[in-house]
Amino acid sequence: MQHANYLPATELLAQFRTGTLDPADYLETLIEAAHRQQETVNCAASLHLDAARAMALEARRRYAEGTARPLEGVPVIIKEETSVKGWPRPLASLVYRDKIATENHPIVDKLLEAGAIPYFQASNPEFCVLGHTWSKLYGVTGNPWATAYSCGGSSGGSGAALAAGVAPLATGSDMAGSIRLPASLCGVYGYKPPFGRLACAPGDEYMTQAVEGPMTRTFDDLVLMQNVLGGPHPNSYTTLPFTPLPTEYGDLKGMRIAYSPAFGHPALADDIRSNMMAALDGLRERGAVIEEVTLNWDLEEINNVLLEGLRALFVDEFMRDIPRAEAHKLNSYTADLYEKAGGPRASIMPSAALGQRLQREMQDKVWGKGYSAFICASMLTTDLAANQDPVAEPMLDINGHQIDAYLGWCLTPPFNLLNRYPVMAVPTGLSELGVPTGMQIVANAYDDETVFRVGANHARAGTSKLFIERFPTMGPAA
Question: Which InterPro entries match (predicted)?
Answer without folding.
Answer: Amidase, Amidase_CS, Amidase_dom
